Amino acid sequence: MHVLRRRSRRKASEITNLHHYQVDLFYNIIDIQLQELNDRFTETTSELLLCTESLNPCNLFFVFDKVKLVKLARFYPLNFSLMRSSNDFAHLKGIGNLAEKLVKINRHIIYSLVYLLIKLVLTLLVATATVERAFSAMNIVKNRLRNKMGDLWMNDCLVTFIERDIFNKVDNELILQYFQNMKSR
């Protein structure tokens, strides 16, 4: 129970500690900080910061928003006017086609950061699936007996297990010949 200053306990209104810290202190501090931010940043700058938030790679671009990216592009009309006026990009159907077109007409050099972002988006899904596949394979391969083996041996076992489609295509006779042709130490 929180008692307000300069009041006796008998006449004090019943305010819990949570209410006191939440309403009297926390909300006031939030208001002060918000006022400071509003004084320092204009509305345009705040909108720019909110739009760039969608490029945050945290949690697999969880806050990715196409509308915010379009707003972000509108903040820089001179940088994107060349892209709008060019007919090269009119009939593209996806982000993969955009990456190919940028390389074909050598715009990936001019727009290097945009090209890097496109490459990141294109490889992120594949990389995530590959990592998940590797970890699930590690749970299968790793057991009590293999816990005691070295990292190199574990890595070799994982590679052959994960890439078993490719590994199964290799002829066993070729492997035997390779080892038979090796010189002894």
Task: Please describe what this structure looks like.
The chain is an all-alpha fold and 185 residues long. It has helices spanning 17-40, 43-52, 66-74, 77-85, 95-104, 107-110, 112-141, 151-162, 164-169, 172-180. α2 (43-52) packs across α3. It is flat and about 85 Å long. The mean pLDDT is 77. InterPro entries: AtLOH3-like (IPR055298), HATC_C_dom (IPR008906). It comes from Apostasia shenzhenica. Keywords: Membrane, Transmembrane, Transmembrane helix.
Helix content: 55-70%
User: What class do helices, strands and sheet pairing give?
Assistant: mainly alpha
Q: Major beta sheet, specifics? A: none
The secondary-structure element order is HHHHHHHHHH
How much of the sequence lies in strands comes to: under 5%
Radius of gyration: 30 Å
| Number of separate helices | 10
Could you tell me the mean pLDDT? 77
Distance between the termini: 82 Å
User: Poorly predicted ranges (pLDDT <50, ≥5 residues)?
Assistant: none
Beta strands, count:
0
Q: Based on CA inertia axes, which overall geometry fits?
A: flat
Pfam families: Dimer_Tnp_hAT (PF05699)
GO molecular function, one term: protein dimerization activity
Protein name: HAT C-terminal dimerisation domain-containing protein
Keywords: Membrane, Transmembrane, Transmembrane helix
Question: How do the strands and helices of this protein lay out in sequence?
Answer:
Layout: H1 17-40, H2 43-52, H3 66-74, H4 77-85, H5 95-104, H6 107-110, H7 112-141, H8 151-162, H9 164-169, H10 172-180
